[in-house]
Design goal:
The structure holds two protein chains of two kinds.
Chain A lengths: L1 H38 L3 H34 L15 H7 L2 H34 L4 H13 L2 H11 L6 H8 L14 H5 L12 H27 L3 H9 L4 H29 L3 H7 L12 H11 L3 H26 L7
Chain B lengths: L1 H28 L3 H4 L14 H9 L2 H32 L5 H10 L5 H15 L5 H5 L6 H12 L3 H9 L4 H12 L1 H17 L2 H6 L8 H11 L4 H21 L1 H14 L1
Helix pairs in contact in B: 1-14, 3-14, 4-8, 4-11, 4-13, 11-15, 13-14
The chains are: A mainly alpha, B mainly alpha.
Chain lengths: ~350, ~270
């Protein structure tokens, strides 16, 4: 025991020595650099040189991989053929996208996904956060559990969901069977959920496919933790007296929530709505990992990102892919501006 | 009584539903193949099959995947922390012409959706000859606007007197930054670092696109490939998923306080 202890201590000593040596070295270098910058007499110039040194790495990376590709994307979208080096086609790629059935179907999938995930996640997270806010004991433990899916990789979690939703040996169909209900194909089911619940009175193509609904459910599970934590922080910031006063005046829980808590939380709600709308339009990982290729049964889970990805990666149609990406960006920016204009106006700031 | 216990019960139920996939994953990882694919409610394996983990590492080069993931995630974390410290300090403390405009420009890059840059960045990586290399996985992610923003906020929060006092003692900007400012903004640094690590480790689409060789794959890509090739060997797939999830969950439990603060930072300041 003592032998191991001394070994550990010796190793710690070596590590400590190395760290100290490194620190001294960095310190020396920094001192030298400072002296060099101090050598510059004009104060304005000195700050400029320091700024160039400090900002340089960030600006190079952001410029090369954030700003330049934006310009390059718009340029590339004007060319046809493979690998973005085909003939100049002007707005041809845009015209093709807007006239393509696959493009619009991917747009509809994206809208279904956003319209499914955002309200469900927000409502559920609010209810859980309000519950956590009201209970006294175990809040920390509950919060830990609810937040857990958010830190786990969507790919690994998707493997688990795929296994549970497997039509042959999955737990989901087993439970349905035990309850005397018919099994489903879950992630392999291209028919609309409305068709399935209405026993075929609604056509099979109307509404999101059951596969897409599974992806939506997965995302609700995966991202609720983030919203719960933010809602909880918002709730804790509301003065307790407001709620207590209302309750003394005979207001019910629902009246308190509707008239006091939700209005006071509106900046949080607004922020989450904007962030989750942008995220919903950019979702890829869960689609790809849950369905294996992102497209799903009969392309019913092919959202716009998956559509861009398959045009880019499988068909090498870079020009067309960047054109669709540009259209998607326009959609995201438009949506954000609309939310800002019409919802943002109703947000109550103290 | 009911008013007190009902929310508690509902929350417990919700937590159980939330945690169930993890529970199922871990128990399935220890089952035999026939147990794992046998639809029943027998939740625990009859015998805990520890050798599944050995079999998983034999079935696919997960050792290589993990090595790659850690190299990339640590490099990205170090890169992001370093660049955001430097840039955040410059934006908060230095006085140079065009500071506000440059900062606004940096913030504007936050609004550029990732996917529009995907194809041109891929072309750029090819031009640089970085396809199937670590730099392709690391360099594009070594700076981001949100981290710079967070670090700038942290530096702005430091009292100006500190710097004035240090300057009187003959301390330059850089030495002040390393000796005095960095220890004071440690919580913000940890937040930025955690975000960077988690984002890098869990990313899929970029490593999927810029690597094709098995030796360069990271765990997330390796896992999707594995699931395609080994889709039927469910117990091994669950084993693989468990070990892929393990590092981030361990990190989460070790630094939970910072994680929750990090999300709040994203929520309130973002």
């Amino acid at each position: 025991m003592t032998g191991r202890d001394s070994t550990v201590r010796g190793m710690m000593g070596i590590v400590g020595g190395v760290v100290e040596g490194l620190a001294a070295f960095v310190d020396g270098c920094v001192g030298r650099l400072d002296d060099i910058f101090d050598g510059v007499r004009r104060r304005g110039l000195k700050d400029v040189l320091l700024a160039v040194f400090l900002l340089g790495p960030s600006l190079v990376v952001l410029g090369a991989f954030g700003v330049a590709p934006l310009v390059a994307a718009v340029y590339m979208s004007l060319f046809g053929g493979k690998y973005g080096v085909g003939p100049f086609v002007g707005l041809g790629n845009y015209v093709e996208a807007l006239g393509s059935g696959a493009f619009w179907r991917s747009f509809v999938v994206t809208v279904y996904y956003a319209a499914g995930t955002i309200p469900i996640t927000m409502a559920l997270s609010f209810v859980v956060a309000y519950g956590l806010f009201r209970i006294v004991r175990g809040r920390g433990l509950f919060r830990t559990v609810y937040f857990l899916p958010y830190v786990t990789s969507a790919v690994a979690a998707a493997m688990v969901w795929r296994a549970i939703l497997n039509p042959q040996f999955g737990l989901a169909n087993y439970v349905l069977g035990q309850l005397g209900l018919a099994p489903h194909n879950w992630l392999l089911e291209p028919r609309s959920i409305l068709y399935l619940v209405s026993d075929g009175r609604v056509p099979a193509w109307a509404g999101p496919s059951l596969a897409l609904c599974c992806v939506i459910l997965f995302e609700v599970w995966h991202s609720s933790g983030f919203m719960i934590v933010i809602f909880l922080a918002g709730l804790t910031a509301i003065p307790r007296e407001l709620e207590e006063a209302a309750r003394i005046d005979g207001a019910s829980v629902f009246q308190v929530i509707r008239r006091i808590i939700l209005p006071l939380l509106s900046p949080t709600l607004f922020f989450l709505a904007i962030v989750s709308a942008i995220k919903a339009f950019q979702a890829f990982n869960s689609f790809y990992a849950l369905t294996g290729d992102g497209r799903g049964p009969v392309d019913t889970t092919q959202n716009m990102i998956v559509y861009i990805y398959s045009n880019f990666y499988e068909y090498q149609r870079w020009g067309y892919g960047t054109a669709v990406a540009t259209l998607l960006c326009i959609a995201i920016v438009t949506l954000t501006v609309l939310q800002w204009r019409f919802v943002g106006r109703r947000v109550h700031y103290e | 009584m009911i008013r007190k216990t009902l929310p508690f019960l509902a929350l417990t139920l919700g937590a159980a539903v939330t945690a169930f996939p993890f529970f199922w994953m871990i128990t399935a990882a220890f089952k035999t193949l026939s147990e794992a694919t046998n639809p029943s409610l027998s939740l625990f394996p009859a015998q805990w099959q520890w050798q599944n983990f050995v079999a998983t590492f034999q079935a696919a080069p997960f050792g290589t995947y993990f090595f790659n993931s850690f190299v990339v995630a640590f490099a990205v974390t170090a890169g992001v922390v370093l660049t955001s410290l430097m840039a955040g300090y410059a934006f908060a403390r230095l006085d140079f012409p065009g500071r506000h405009m440059l900062f606004a420009l940096v913030l504007a890059t936050m609004m550029v959706p990732f996917e529009i840059t995907l194809i041109p960045n891929f072309a750029l990586i090819h031009k640089l000859g970085w396809y199937n290399t670590y730099p392709a996985l690391i360099v594009p992610w070594c700076a981001n606007a949100f981290s710079i923003f967070l670090m700038r906020q942290a530096f702005m929060g430091l009292p100006g007197d500190y710097f004035d006092a240090a300057k009187v003692d003959g301390c330059g900007h850089l030495r002040f930054l390393i000796r005095i400012a960095v220890p004071l903004v440690k919580p913000a640094m940890v937040t930025v670092g955690l975000f960077a690590f988690l984002g890098s480790y869990n990313s899929l689409i970029w490593p999927l696109v810029v690597t094709s060789e098995d030796t360069m794959r990271v765990v997330q890509v390796g896992l999707t490939v594995f699931s395609g090739a080994e889709g039927v060997r469910l117990h091994l797939l669950m084993c693989a998923s468990t070990i892929v999830i393990l590092p981030t969950v361990a990190l989460y439990f070790a630094a939970q306080k910072y994680f929750l603060e990090a999300s709040l930072g994203a929520g309130i300041k973002g």
